[in-house]
Amino acid sequence: MPHTPSPLLLALRAGTQACHQRLEARLPFFRDDFDLPAYRRLMQAYYGFHAPLQALLADHQGSERAKTAVLEHDLLALGLSRAEVAALPRCQALPATADEASVLGVMYVIEGSTLGGQVLKRAMAERLGIDGDHGARFLDVYGPLTGAHWRSFLQRLDQPAASHPQTVAAAIATFECFEHWLQDCGVLA
């Protein structure tokens, strides 16, 4: 049976729609000039955002939602050394995660991106010839558990503890921080 969207989920969708569309339009995955070196640079930037954010979220999400090790695997498969991965710059301007309402907003963006990764996984296999063993595991970070993880997260949104305005504000801040970081890294259109 499909999940009935909670009021908070509806507020998150509406509140982040413009940010989501703006970022999606700027991501280079479907540009004509997007090639393997551009993909590698983009994944380096993703790592620089996800590594410090995962550290902030460590007390709020289970290890089954960790993504940094998968990104590292991809970067190694794409030709970086462990030392090069360790030396990658890390985003310092991260969204606040001081309370559960803010954590839920941040996680909404991060967990929601795993759904879009399914589309990107197929497109990158076709366009760049890469798969989970050759630098694209992050695009399918949860594999067959993607739907189950998303439904589990939706159940968390159903909890009454979340503040709608605070959670939506944290989700918007996450989109904005990520977009600014990717722009600073020079990987956005």
UniProtKB/TrEMBL annotation:
Gene3D superfamilies: Heme oxygenase-like (1.20.910.10). Pfam families: Heme_oxygenase (PF01126). CDD domains: HemeO-bac. This is Biliverdin-producing heme oxygenase.
